[in-house]
C-alpha cells in the first residue's frame, strides 16, 4: 500500500512510519524540517512543506492509496487540525485517495458515545480547561464527518512511551475504554491495522492498552 503520512517527526508518527515500512508499505511523508526525520530502514518519499499549505498537501497525496495523520497538538497553531482536515478533504475529494485514518483524542465527544462516568468527567474537564487547542479536535471531527470520504479518527486516552504490548488492544466504536492510557507503539500498530483492514470507517473508535 502507498501511504501518505503526516506527523512523521512526532513521537507517535515516528513509530507509525517505522511500523509502516516494516510491513512493506511505500510511504510518503510531509515535513516542515526534513532534518528532524529519523533514519529509516527503507527509503521514504519526502515532501517539504506544511499541512496548512494546500499545495504541499496535494503533492503529498500524489499516487497514494491512503492518508494517515499522527499530527500532534501545538499551542502555536490552535486550529492546526481543523485547517489540516479542510486541506486534506479538499485534495482527497478532487484527486483521491478516499481513505483517511487520523489520531484524535478520547476527550472529544461524538454522537453515539457510551462513555463511563469517569470518562465523561475527564472529557468535561479537558473541554473546559484545555483552551483553544482542545477545541480544535471537535472542529477537526466535524470536517471529516461531513466530508463524504472513508475516514476514521482514532481516539486514544493518555499517550505513554514504552514497549508495545503482546495482547489484543481494547477498542470500540462508541464505548470508552476501561484503561486510561495507551502505549504509543500500540497506538501506531492499531492505526496501521485500521488502514490495512478497512476498520471503523466513518467512526471515531476508542483504543487503549489493556490494564494488566
Automatic annotation (TrEMBL):
InterPro entries named among the record's database cross-references: NAD(P)-bd_dom (IPR016040), NAD(P)-bd_dom_sf (IPR036291), Polyketide_Oxido-like (IPR051606)
GO MF term (any one): riboflavin reductase (NADPH) activity
Domain NAD(P)-binding: residue ranges: 7-196
PANTHER family given in the database record: FLAVIN REDUCTASE (NADPH)
Protein name per its UniProtKB record: Putative NADH-flavin reductase
Organism: Paraoerskovia marina
Amino acid at each position: 500500500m502507498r501511504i501518505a503520512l503526516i506527523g512523521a517527526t512526532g513521537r507517535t508518527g515516528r513509530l507509525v512510519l517505522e511500523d509502516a515500512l516494516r510491513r512493506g508499505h511505500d510511504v510518503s511523508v510531509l515535513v516542515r524540517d526534513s532534518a528532524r526525520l529519523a533514519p529509516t530502514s527503507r527509503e521514504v518519499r519526502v515532501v517539504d512543506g506544511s499541512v496548512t499549505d494546500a499545495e504541499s498537501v496535494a503533492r503529498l497525496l500524489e499516487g497514494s492509496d491512503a492518508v494517515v495523520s499522527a499530527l500532534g497538538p501545538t499551542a502555536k497553531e490552535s486550529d492546526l487540525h481543523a485547517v489540516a482536515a479542510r486541506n486534506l478533504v479538499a485534495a482527497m475529494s478532487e484527486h483521491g485517495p478516499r481513505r483517511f485514518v487520523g489520531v484524535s483524542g478520547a476527550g472529544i465527544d461524538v454522537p453515539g458515545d457510551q462513555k463511563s462516568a469517569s470518562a465523561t468527567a475527564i472529557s468535561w474537564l479537558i473541554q473546559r480547561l484545555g483552551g483553544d487547542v482542545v477545541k480544535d479536535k471537535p472542529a477537526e471531527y466535524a470536517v471529516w464527518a461531513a466530508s463524504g470520504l472513508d475516514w476514521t479518527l482514532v481516539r486514544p486516552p493518555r499517550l505513554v512511551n514504552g514497549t508495545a504490548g503482546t495482547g489484543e488492544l481494547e477498542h470500540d466504536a462508541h464505548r470508552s475504554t476501561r484503561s486510561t492510557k495507551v502505549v504509543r507503539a500500540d497506538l501506531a500498530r492499531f492505526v496501521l491495522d485500521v488502514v490495512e483492514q478497512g476498520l471503523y470507517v466513518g467512526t471515531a473508535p476508542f483504543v487503549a492498552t489493556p490494564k494488566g
